[in-house]
Amino acid sequence: MAIIKTKGIIIKRVNLSEADKILTILTADRGKIRVVARGVRKPKAKLGGFLEMFRYNEYLLAEGRNLDLVAGAYTIDNLVSIGQSLRSVATAYYIAETVDKLIEETQEASKTFEIVYRSLKAISQSGDLDAIKGWFEINLLASLGFRPELNRCVECRAPLEEGWFSFELGGILDAQHRNSDLAALPVSAVELLELRAIGGNIPKQVSPKIAQIGAGFMEQIVDRNLKSKEFLAEVTSGFLE
Ligand SMILES: [Zn+2]
User: Fold this and answer.
1) How many A from CA of 174 to the centre of ligand 1?
2) What are the residue boundaries of the structural domains of the chain, listed by start?
């Protein structure tokens, strides 16, 4: 039986039978994978403690009939301090769920892994949760090809120092074109600088506008992504009928 070694963070756990679980793991080298952890729900399970949510482990996987099986694991970073508050746990779950929705199982995900690990690490080190969430959103979307335009008006390409952020158009509008999206949010010069800087390191804190833009932009892309998945599912099932 072939054994493979990989490293990754547990982003989802689902009960399979009375004793087993299916784990979704985000790895740096194999993308998002789903594996079966046998017997892990029994009270004295050998691997139980290693397979908690958000654990960063190295795994030994054995080839299974459908999904691979966890044959062994040891922890690289337990990230247990994520459990320090309800809000930090909720932020970590938001990160895990968002990644699960946006990343396909066959997709290359080394950059995504890096963004997720840095975000979870910062949560476990008591960083500002709004800043971490905003950094995660802007950087994950940028890595998936949805980098917001923050330097020029998305309509006329005029350079900008302030303007209106459009979720729909994926960037900033100037006064002349702000009516292209009536839902666009006004962004001051200071806020725009803050938005541009968030592509780098996780900031110590962010203004409410940045948090609002990160969350709104993410919602828009996740929504679009889910709709296209539904559309694909409909088209495919149509072919099968
Ligand atoms: Zn313009």
Assistant:
1) 5
2) 3-80, 128-240
Ligand 1 centre to CA of 163 (Å) is 9
Task: Express each pLDDT in 64-94 by its tens digit.
Answer: 889 999 999 999 999 999 999 999 999 999 9
Spacing, Cα 216 to ligand 1 middle (Å):
22
CATH classification (class only), 3-80:
mainly beta
Residues with CB under 5 A from ligand 1 (ion): 153, 155-156, 174, 176-177
β-strands 171-173, 185-187: how paired?
unpaired
Strand locations in the chain (E): 3-15, 21-27, 32-37, 56-62, 68-77, 163-166, 171-173, 185-187
Tens of pLDDT, residues 93-142: 999 999 999 999 988 999 999 999 999 999 999 999 999 999 999 999 99
For residue 156, report the distance from its CA to the centre of ligand 1, in Å.
Answer: 4
In angstroms, how far is the first alpha carbon of the chain from the final one? Answer: 38
Residue that is written with structure tokens 């960083």 in the block: 127
- pTM, entire model: 0.91
Please report, for residues 7, 28, 39, 105, 223, the alpha-carbon distance to residue 58 in angstroms, rounded to integers and kept in the order given.
Answer: 4, 11, 19, 19, 33
> How much is the pLDDT for 165?
96
